[in-house]
Design a protein that fits this description.
GO terms for molecular function: O-methyltransferase activity; S-adenosylmethionine-dependent methyltransferase activity. This protein has a five-stranded parallel β-sheet with strand order 3-2-1-4-5, sandwiched between helices. The protein is of the alpha/beta class and about 170 residues long. It contains five helices and five strands; from the N terminus they run βαβαβαβαβα. It has two domains: about 5-130, Vaccinia Virus protein VP39 (Rossmann fold), CATH 3.40.50; about 135-165, no CATH class. The longest helix has 20 residues, at about 65-85. Helices cover about 45% and strands about 20% of the residues. The two termini are about 25 Å apart. Bound molecules: S-adenosylmethionine.
Amino acid sequence: MNAKETIELGVFTGYSLLVTALSILQDGKIVAIGVDREAYESIGLPITKRANIKNKIEFIESEALPALDLLLQRTRLSRARRNQASLQLRPTQENEGSFDVALVDANRANQENHHERLMRQVRVGGVTVYDKTLWGGNTVLPDASSALLIRRRSWQDIAEFNKTIA
Ligand SMILES: C[S@@+](CC[C@H](N)C(=O)[O-])C[C@H]1O[C@@H](n2cnc3c(N)ncnc32)[C@H](O)[C@@H]1O
């Protein structure tokens, strides 16, 4: 789809970041939001330098939700500057973004809020990808007997989110 602007929630060592950076256009950009700067800088960053894609990545050390809100403000500011229009910092229900692709691989608990913010910032016709929506089938047919409680809760959270999206 000739993606140029992408966003990723949940970076860890930057594996999916690397795959995305190698796939998007040469002048493409990825906004990568994660809480674990150390994992990214110690493992991912040296690899992005070797792969010559460091310039494509803007790493933001933050929880996803406040960072998404700040990004929305940043978009509005630059749009207002460009159009010399008045600033409107109230949230709207309109799609305001220009991301071609979003990859969501952060904590599941806040997934609906992440989704709501992303739907305003991914362009119409763009793609939003959620990690582990099926999780080996367990979010549809949970093999609860063999799972730890924490895992069963994650499956339930994802199943609920899948219903919301559907
Ligand atoms: C499954 S890992 C991401 C893996 C990564 N996409 C990859 O392919 O290497 C999830 C990451 O999300 C981060 N994380 C958890 N909650 C988060 C949040 N609310 N906002 C941003 N990052 C979060 C965790 O610290 C962890 O590094």
